[in-house]
Amino acid sequence: MKSYEVNFDGLVGPTHNYGGLSYGNVASQSNSQQSSNPKEAALQGLAKMKALMDMGFQQGVLAPQERPDVAALRRLGFSGTDAQVIERAAKEAMPLLVASCSASSMWVANAATVSPSADTADGRVHFTAANLNCKFHRSIEHPTTSRVLGAMFANQQHFAHHAALPAVAQFGDEGAANHTRFCREYGEAGVEFFVFGRSAFDNRFPAPQKYPARQTLEASQAVARLHGLRDEGVVYAQQNPNVIDQGVFHNDVIAVGNGEVLFYHEDAFLETDKMLAELQGKLAKVGGNFQSVCVPRSAVTVDDAVRSYLFNSQLLSRPDGSMLLIVPQECQANERVWAYLQSLTSSGGLIREVKVFDLKQSMQNGGGPACLRLRVALNETELAAVNPGVIMTAPLYGSLTAWVEKHYRDRLSETDLADPQLLLECRTALDELTQILKLGAVYPFQIN
Predict the structure, then answer these.
(1) Yes or no: is domain 3-67+102-447 CATH 1.10.10.10?
(2) Which of 126, 250, 265, 407 is catalytic?
(3) What are phi and psi of 385, to 5 degrees?
(4) What are the pLDDT digits (tens) for 252-266?
């Protein structure tokens, strides 16, 4: 039976703005308060989806969330009509309004952790929505994320969904941004690689001193248990706390894996040699040949990696066994990074080609190509059981492009977030989107 890795990209929402909400994310903070272009952001993301589809890769779409999140503001004490809630929040606590308007759900690498059926005890694909409790603006996402994923992967024979972990610091979970899977073939048993920034209960593990470590070891272990993963099919590794303090807020900013290959920076992990040996040994037991590509700090510094998002790239397998790297334009603009990539692809190694995409609107808010997609390994039976409305096709691309052109603003500043009309625009757009994607009622305004 054939198997695939399907990339489900997040569709950028109508309230895409530069609120500077993510402490520890250098791009998010450095571009704070600039005017954004939601329409351009959404079209850039759709263009990437269409291009990968045209290259022969399986591609899907994950819907954005309702913003501003008026319900979240009500829980914080703002009352009245929806318009009055927004007006009061803008007047009394503008940072809370900005947080409630965040379009950060576009980075669906944080939506959930996904384990394919070949790895799980019950032979189903398992999803655990990430609690994202390190940041308020992201912690409000998981209820809608769970409903959207449930509408996309509804067949209980093939798919199992778990609620987010307890929303406390000890179980901080950032989803697939700190999770990678290695395998010989997508439909075969593999090794799931969980990367954590700190331990909540074991002080033997060092922690960063400047920026928060968002993923805990305990959260990763809990997800592995929920998914029914075998001990011999799991490897845990700690992210280097020094690189977290340099702006590497998720592992996918410093490493990316696919198939049997890990592409990583020399300074990405602690106890790197031990971790590589464990990955190699465990993958060999299921017939795989683990390989790694280490980028030396002498060629690309951590600062270069953070500014260019070299590792927040998509590493994709091509039919001939070689790999393609999807990178943002910022890699081409960085002299050292681009020189390294030219050397890498001309060396005849595993990664043979690099394709560059303009994702400036997302990049300026701290998310690159890998942030924008959630990877789901599916066999052909499971793929047939996915809601067909969310699988990218040429007609769907046309419909979504027209939808964006119809509903999205081409400029959004902080003061615009206080406009109650923006909420109405967002709800109108999302109501139409659920019909396009055949999701049913997944948003609070459709349910309540």
Answers:
(1) no
(2) 250
(3) -90, -5
(4) 999 999 999 999 999
